[in-house]
Specification:
Protein name: DUF3231 family protein
Helix content: 55-70%
Shape: globular
CATH topology of the largest domain: Ferritin
Strand content: under 5%
InterPro entries: DUF3231, Ferritin-like
Largest sheet: none
Pfam families: DUF3231 (PF11553)
Distance between the termini: 58 Å
């Protein structure tokens, strides 16, 4: 596997008075916090990995988290911006027993890379300051390079199937009035974009389910463990609904990977890290639902995603409330509260 080139941020020139915008602050904050979490998780994975290729992949991913955190911290410090607390040594127990088998790590890295690419792709069009823009370009390019390594390994080891194959169209066609039907009348087959998003949502959710199942096994707080069990069952139901949509079209779908979780009940992570991680992953599902609905045309598919969205949103709200109650939710940068300004 090729190593990913480092970034030399010291060469950038900018106006000394150019302040960070809200978009730049927010995306830098999210990048630092997310990578601090991933850094803890990957360090633990590296304690229990036997496959040399998967180990190299984990090492490449760990190196990226360290670089991204270091560069973001440098920008924060130049702008006198408080470096987020994020996650650190207190949130991971490197001596904990193995919780996952090696192939899970590759699936996990694909999911995590998708989440990173989502942050960077949304952020780049909104970022203008040169050092921040170049940083996010580097983040995007590096994560895409890592994604290619991940996909190659998944395919070479037979750990995943490609998205379904469908016939090549004979000619250009325009849709008929039954295009939106989903419950009554003639219901057309799923089109390519609908299939792609079902495949993507299944792929994301089978990784998410395995991870939350593991978290439910090891969480110390009973309330959090029960919430994880609820999230596990919710995710499982969603997966089965999406799989049914593909199977009804005689199309294959990615398989569950629950067997890649061991029976260990000794937690390698703090409850704080695990709860934040699942809020982050479930929030990514909400973004994925938006993308899926945007290309959908069938009423039944739209209703399916709407129901998933409501249930996932409810889970995220409960999880966020627990984080707030326990003092675990770090405040992102915010606008001035002009109704409550204190006089100097």
């Amino acid at each position: 596997m090729k190593t990913i080139r480092p970034l030399k941020i010291g060469s950038y020139k900018m106006s000394p008075n150019e302040e960070l915008t809200s978009a730049e602050m927010g995306k830098l904050w999210a990048t630092y916090t997310g990578n601090s979490m991933a850094n803890c998780v990957i360090k633990y994975y590296l304690q229990h990995v036997d496959d040399d290729e998967i180990k190299t992949l984990l090492e490449n991913a760990l190196k990226l988290t360290e670089e991204f955190m270091s560069i973001a911290k440098e920008i924060f410090e130049k702008d006198n911006f408080p470096v987020p607390k994020g996650f650190g040594d207190e949130d991971v127990n490197l001596g904990a027993p193995r919780l996952f088998l090696d192939p899970f790590y590759v699936h996990y890295l694909k999911y995590a890379s998708k989440a990173g690419i989502s942050i960077y792709s949304v952020g780049l069009p909104l970022i203008y300051r040169k050092d921040v823009k170049e940083f996010f370009i580097y983040c995007m390019e590096s994560t895409l390079a890592l994604m290619e390594q991940i996909k190659d390994l998944l395919m070479n080891k037979g750990l995943i199937i490609k998205p379904p194959i469908i016939p090549v169209p004979d000619k250009v066609e325009f849709v008929h009035k039954d295009f939106l039907n989903g419950f009554f009348g003639h219901v057309r087959p799923l089109h390519a974009l609908e299939i792609a998003h079902f495949y993507d949502n299944i792929e994301n959710n089978v990784t998410s389910k395995a991870l939350i199942m593991a978290f439910a096994q090891v969480a110390k707080d009973k309330k959090i463990s029960e919430l994880f069990e609820r999230g596990r069952d919710l995710t499982s139901n969603n997966i089965e609904s999406y799989m049914k949509m593909l199977h009804n079209e005689n199309l294959p779908s990615p398989a569950f990977i629950d067997d890649l979780v061991t029976t260990s009940t000794f937690s390698p992570f703090s409850d704080k890290l695990m709860l934040f991680h699942k809020v982050d992953m479930f929030s990514m599902k909400i973004r994925a639902f938006g993308n899926s609905v945007a290309v959908n045309g069938r009423h039944d598919v739209g209703l399916l995603y709407s129901k998933s969205l409501m249930k996932i949103s409810a889970f995220v709200e409960v999880a966020a409330r627990i984080m707030i109650e326990k003092g675990w939710m770090e405040q992102p940068p915010k606008a001035a509260d002009r109704d409550n300004l204190e006089s100097s």
